[in-house]
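Reading a protein record of the kind used here takes little practice once its layout is understood. The fold follows as a row of integers, each naming the local backbone shape at the matching residue. With these conventions in mind, the following record can be read line by line:

_____
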Amino acid sequence: MNATVPGRAAVADAPLPRHLEFIAQTRFERPTLVVDADAVARQYQALARGLGRARIHYAVKANPEPAILRRLVAEGCCFDAASRTEIEMCLAAGARSDQISFGNTIKRGSDIAFAHAKGITHFAADAREELDKLAQHAPGANVCLRLIVENSAADWPLSRKFGCSPDMALTLMGYATSLGLRVEGLSFHVGSQTRAPWMWEDTLDQVADLWARAAEAGYELNLLNIGGGFPADYGAATQGAEVYAQEVMALVDARFGEVPQIMAEPGRGLVAEAGAIAAEVLLVSKKHETDLYRWVYLDIGKFSGLAETLDEAIRYPITTARDHEATGPCVLAGPSCDSADVLYEKQPVQLPQGLRAGDRVVIHACGAYTSTYASVGFNGFAPLDVMVI
């Protein structure tokens, strides 16, 4: 069997990444995500060295495969869960309740009660109504107030769906205290795929200002949750995980000093590069004889795992066995009967001129936010298969 990885020339004495080697040696009947658990562990270790005293809570939503969770438990990782199901998955993987935070600010009351009964004490909130639910279903719980941050420099800034304004946060501190809850600290998210440490500066300044105001108002905060934003390599130059994390922590220390507890919630930056998707070309065509662009249709699209191509925010590197051939611009689309299922059109993708139906493509850095975004079966296409090696 041919063990050549599409588009990746062999380098003397440099073994191929395990997941790419596995893809090269395996035939798949449908699109399949292959993730190397060893690579996830190495990335965790690199982030842990860089973050130092900050405790890593893996954002489970990035990829909740049980084998990945078990490996991270073995590494000593903690977890940020967004739902009862994610909490159950972490517990099933061997995590202790004190290693799990319920970080979603939008929670069902019965799920809060479930988490509280399991011994989880750390919750996030950004509204009076959420604090009311916590007081009712998890009395005495520790609360981190989630802040809205402005002017994110991330490739994918988060919307105003999450968080509250600094002024409201001060009001909520008093309200939470009156309900018998313990306000531990503040949390924020700098934005997904924040490619350089300096991009954190403005956000950290905003949070540090509120931290100081809270101290002046008499609130003794002891936890800073810096959230996610740690980037993956999608083909643009990014720093290694350890150096990146060190520089972010230097920025944090310069503004907050000796905060008793710091949390970080990497998701993408922990698992993305450890995985790739093996997919297949279904059709290569033109809409008009004089078109400059070809349309390349894959057996995977927005609804089967590549939802982050929305607005072309995440541009995955794609390789084929024909990468030695001349290339030309292509519109890349998925297989479903939905006109929204177009991956890249504003910025066409350069793909080999000889690309044909039946050719394999490898979509790189897909370990995060692919399997969890795949639909149950839109148009009858099965959810994305996942293999953890």
The two ends are 19 Å apart (CA to CA). The longest helix spans residues 201-216. The domain at 37-271 is CATH 3.20.20.10 (TIM Barrel). The longest strand covers residues 275-285.
